[in-house]
Amino acid sequence: MSEVRTITVLYFAWVRERIGRGREVIALPMSVTTVAELVAWLRARGPEYEAAFAKPDIVRAALDQSHVKPSTPLGSAREIAFFPPVTGG
Amino acid sequence: MSEVRTITVLYFAWVRERIGRGREVIALPMSVTTVAELVAWLRARGPEYEAAFAKPDIVRAALDQSHVKPSTPLGSAREIAFFPPVTGG
Amino acid sequence: MTVAVQDAPFALDAEVAALTVGRTDIGAIVTFTGTVRGEAGGRQLASMTLEHYPGMTQAELARVEALAHARWPLQATRIVHRVGTLKPGEGIVLVIAASAHRQAAFDAASFLMDYLKTSAPFWKKEVGVDGSGGWVDARETDDQALAKWGG
Amino acid sequence: MTVAVQDAPFALDAEVAALTVGRTDIGAIVTFTGTVRGEAGGRQLASMTLEHYPGMTQAELARVEALAHARWPLQATRIVHRVGTLKPGEGIVLVIAASAHRQAAFDAASFLMDYLKTSAPFWKKEVGVDGSGGWVDARETDDQALAKWGG
Fold it and tell me: In chain B, count of helices (H) and strands (E)?
């Protein structure tokens, strides 16, 4: 029996639209340890995720509300967000 | 009998205060042809002018309301102004 | 040093007064207002809707503000960013930088805008007068603008 | 492209609205407000009096404004300069630059201030709270600021 952790995942803008929801709580295998690994794991969940992360280099991530890179370890973060490059201002 | 021309001379800020007036119309010999020559001519008029133009490099001039250099000919200008470096803004 | 994310419009005089009233140590106040343009890429806009990431937005704006204060001698700064649906001509964002010196105020306001544009989690979606809509793409020129501040 | 030399205070919102109301081609509005500081060179100020050269003042401000329009794509600009006696905290000068693009608006507003400071015929005289007074000296840093624009 493999261990899992729960993490809240948020989606914004067209990432949210493609996935069809803005927020979900997922049970994540402990083997998924970095942001990039989480993206790969999400893409395997279905075509809506595949569409959202079709170009993973474009989608940005924030871990506990701070910008992070794909190589960043998830650590003990409780919240991760995925979104397109920001366009405010 | 030497020819003269009349020109309105304006003074501002501490140049005005040292000379003791803000405006005068002077009859100028035709031999005075440049801004620098006018300054020299004015300095000879009295101690208040001497005080105002003690450092002629500092005093700025405008001919018919445009900034000019000491070497600029007076031409047919009707108005010349002398003032310290500007300090607006 | 205050930031706000709000639906309501902002008023320049009121925002500047809140920073400066009763103070005589400020010599220079620069404001930047970004407004919704009526045309984007040849399309006439009916409206623009701003989505954001509540919580992170405030944190990022405060972080950007702190960076500016660490870099220039600033008496006060303010960032107001609107969210929701805006019409052409309306203000989207307001940045204010107040300093004893004009160059610091200009540089800090420009820096705040460059950082805000590339790091604060806002996203714009346009709706054209013909009903067509789409998310605004990030611009490379914004990344280039950021690069001029180094680090 | 308008300039004003006046005794009366100015209001940011009203001045910006006069340039931008009903327009949807503007994306960026930068304002600069210069205010009277309460301290100058270690002396507490009671007031500052601005003298100017009527006629030439307007002509110089309009010339500086035209230089900015020749250099950047600007939708609108405005310069308001006060004269007479002002108290610490009061606004002395307002410059507004509106453009489709933020960098043009920032650069033009900064340029207008740098040119205005070195060419518009205004002179400041300070009166300290102790009754001492004196004309403000021109600053070399203002000439240096001008140099960065070339020509």
Answer: 3, 5
